């Protein structure tokens, strides 16, 4: 990690008095800094020299969004005019602190949902013609037999625990069995239907941990390294899933606000939700982390109750959207 003395010299900063870690994690390591009354965020990238282009792409999309008057937080320039510091084979960028405050997911209200929807509409407008050179694409790399085999492996790991099974373990076994039944009974989705929708660059990780709010407005958008070339509806379905849990009130407020900026037909959401649900039903990351990699930090993410396929949750919501 970059020494604070080297950091100060690289960006001509006054002495760093306090450092701390952000509450929410990122793919890359982030350290928050205070020099006097000024705060910064230092990002340490987990990229090799051959992957430097990914950082360049992230900084380029930030600059593009800023040029359209939107509150993307840009990295601070070094004395040579660049924004990427290469120090002992590692890459760093320094960002000013974002204005406003972050709001935990469980405290988001309808006004926040409306602000988020409007901002995403403006963001998609700004990125409509942006070149997808640096953006990721959607991965359709799912296979039913592979996923079922992985469920078997996770179940075996749960049952072999020497300390026996607790309530969470029993619930996990139940949900895994329900997911296996769902996968075995489902017909694979026709992923080619997404090709009928217009694709463009999107933020890729639009959620409350990457947004700051002032009053009833989004005041800053951060973490652009997951930009995705996809239908606009993909980002919206992801918001429905991650932030609003397919609950009608939040999803409707968000979508209606988005549509005040840019139209989006319900049929686009329907096509996208079908593929999104199929891919997510193969996603066993949470159980792999908990039971195969022994990552106890993810325990709180295991949802209570039975496994409800995302397709069912979408269809329950769809009838309440217009």
TrEMBL record:
Q: Where is the signal peptide?
A: none
Which terms does the record give in the GO molecular function aspect?
amino acid kinase activity
Q: Which SUPFAM superfamilies match?
A: Protein kinase-like (PK-like)
Domain (Aminoglycoside phosphotransferase) spans: 23-259
Identify its protein family. Answer: Belongs to the pseudomonas-type ThrB family.
Give the protein name, as stated in the record.
Answer: Aminoglycoside phosphotransferase domain-containing protein
């Amino acid at each position: 990690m970059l020494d604070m003395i080297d950091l100060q010299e690289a960006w001509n900063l006054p002495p760093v008095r306090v450092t701390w870690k952000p509450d929410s994690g990122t793919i890359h390591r982030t350290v928050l800094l205070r020099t006097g009354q000024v705060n910064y965020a230092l990002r340490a990238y987990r990229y090799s020299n051959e992957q430097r282009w990914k950082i360049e792409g992230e900084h380029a999309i930030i600059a593009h969004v800023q040029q359209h008057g939107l509150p993307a937080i840009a990295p601070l320039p070094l004395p040579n005019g660049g924004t990427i510091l290469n120090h002992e084979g590692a890459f760093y960028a320094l960002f000013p602190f974002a204005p406003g405050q972050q709001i935990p997911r469980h405290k988001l209200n309808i006004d926040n949902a409306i602000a988020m929807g409007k901002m995403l509409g403006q963001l998609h407008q700004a990125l409509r013609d942006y070149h997808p050179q640096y953006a990721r694409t959607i991965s359709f790399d799912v296979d039913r037999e592979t996923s079922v085999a992985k469920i078997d492996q996770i179940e075996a790991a749960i049952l072999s625990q020497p300390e026996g099974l607790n309530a969470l373990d029993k619930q996990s076994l139940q949900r895994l069995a329900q997911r296996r039944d769902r996968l075995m009974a489902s017909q694979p989705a026709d992923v080619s239907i997404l090709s009928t929708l217009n694709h463009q660059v999107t933020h890729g990780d639009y959620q409350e941990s990457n947004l700051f709010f002032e009053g009833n407005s989004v005041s800053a958008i951060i973490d652009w390294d997951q930009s995705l070339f996809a239908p606009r509806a993909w980002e919206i379905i992801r918001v429905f899933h991650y932030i609003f849990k397919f609950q009608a009130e939040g999803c409707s407020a968000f979508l209606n606000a988005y549509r005040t900026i840019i139209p989006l037909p319900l049929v686009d959401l329907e096509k996208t939700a079908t593929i999104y649900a199929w891919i997510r039903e193969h996603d066993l990351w949470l159980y792999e982390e908990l039971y195969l990699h022994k990552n106890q930090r993810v325990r709180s993410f295991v949802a209570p109750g039975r496994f409800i396929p995302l397709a069912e949750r979408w269809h329950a919501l769809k009838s309440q959207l217009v």
